Task: structure prediction
Amino acid sequence: EEYQRTFIANVSHDFRSPLTSIKGYLEAILDGTIPPQMHEKYLTRVISETERLNKLTQGMLTLNTLDSKGYLNRTNFDINRVIKDTAASFEGTCSTKNITFDLTFSDNIQMVYADLGKIQQVLYNLIDNGIKFSHTDSTIYIQASSKYEKIFVSIKDTGIGIPKDSIKKIWERFYKSDLSRGKDKKGTGLGLAIVREIIQSHGENIDVVSTEGVGSEFIFSLPKSTNL
Ligand code: ADP
Result:
């Protein structure tokens, strides 16, 4: 019950602030406080707030299906290929911040047995964070290395890092550090909660090593394909 209460309080809080600004901008446009030549600027903000609400709803739905022990649709696939494709999908965002990827694979092809769609989401969320919290003109290092019956995937940035006292909280639903609240208005604080839920549902682990002002590294494991 306590959990339910906190959850609802967080949801309400996170929905209220974009709704308040949307209402404020639209009223100011209607009553003329914002002059016509400024409409485009404020309507763009309205759209960005609705995108945030959309992301929140999407994230909550994803968590909800993961919660209800949504079954895993496991297949054998090459994790290197998925990393390359996911990284490539960030090309646009990367070029505006001049961020490059450095990919290292311990073997040409590394087959894992996992839920492809969900692992794509994990990589997407971790790379998205890596870019968001990196400075311009930097590199994001992604590695996939084989160790015994596992493949370890690491996503490492040289960005703002995570303060010691918030490192445990980053996995909580809706948690966003104060630092990132200002910088990243589109964030929902649900990304890492989803990532952890997915990795744990595979029976695997995810860890983070981070130093404020130096950067962060997220490492998770996946089972290698067997009987191939
Ligand atoms: P969001 O990115 O939407 O804020 P997440 O759940 O993905 O939500 O992340 C929660 C918080 O963890 C972020 O707000 C940020 O404070 C911190 N964080 C996550 N990834 C990184 C990173 N690569 N570098 C620094 N801080 C990070």
In short: Residues 57 and 178 are 22 Å apart (CA to CA). The longest strand covers residues 139-147.
